[in-house]
Design a protein that fits this description.
- By secondary structure, the protein is α+β, with helices and mostly antiparallel strands.
- The protein contains 7 helices and 5 strands.
- It has helices at about 5-25, 65-70, 75-105, 110-115, 115-140, 155-180, 190-205, and strands at about 30-35, 40-45, 50-55, 60, 150.
- The chain has a 5-stranded antiparallel beta sheet with strand order 4-3-2-1-5.
- A hairpin with a 3-residue loop joins strand 2 and strand 3 (about 50-55).
- The longest helix has about 35 residues, at about 75-105.
Length: about 210
């Protein structure tokens, strides 16, 4: 496989990871709780990074609100930090996409050297998302509002898959960059053979 092929394959996987990142931010399903009333009516609560949903009101509310922070400022600070980290991750992913385009549109030198920039950005965005995921998991395990019955939901899972894919891409691109031969390296062989043919008549004449 050529370097261009590696970058194209990595770009497709990266775009899928970006889609998962954006979906995890948009869909308010980081932590959820499902139950039902005595009459059998289902009850559903879910927390997103910026919105909260209750099936009792069948409406979304901004979260966290001032009343939530009066009770637990530590929780609000950590939750809002996750929102910032995920937004920052989207910015880095945009920069990574630009780096992919520049490398693919460039020549041989960019394809052979550009992997360092792309891998650095991929590792950075993976670490940022991993930090956000870890904070949510910490709050889920330690905050009193999440009693037994609450669970980490789709958005958390998508975030986890996204940063895992990006970290694997960084490792894969780095490995192929170090293992694949230089593009056009095979062109030296015909030149060498031609030089040997030119020297043979001279040797015969002597």
């Amino acid at each position: 496989m050529t370097r261009r092929g590696v970058y194209l394959g990595a770009l497709v996987a990266f775009l899928a990871a970006c889609a998962m990142t954006l979906t995890s931010i948009i869909i308010p399903r980081w932590i959820s709780w499902n139950s039902e009333t005595l009459s059998g009516r289902p009850i559903h609560y879910t927390y997103g990074l910026h919105r909260y949903y209750s099936s009792l009101t069948d409406d979304y509310e901004y979260f966290p609100q001032t009343r939530d922070c009066h009770q637990d400022r530590h929780f609000c600070s950590m939750w809002r930090s996750v929102g910032f980290l995920m937004s920052f991750a989207v910015v880095i992913e945009g920069m990574t996409l630009v780096a992919f385009i520049v490398v693919l549109a460039g020549g041989k030198q960019k394809r052979e050297q550009g992997w360092k920039v792309i891998c650095g950005l991929l590792v950075l965005v993976a670490l940022v998302q991993c930090a956000g995921m870890a904070i949510i998991a910490f709050l889920y395990e330690n905050d009193d509002r999440f009693f037994p019955g609450w669970r980490l939901d789709e958005s958390w899972i998508l975030c986890t898959i996204s940063w895992s894919v990006e970290l694997l891409l960084a490792a894969g691109i780095a490995a192929t960059a170090l293992l694949l031969p230089s593009e056009g390296g095979y062109e030296l062989i015909p030149d060498t053979e031609r030089e040997e043919e030119e020297h043979q008549p001279m040797s015969g004449a002597n």
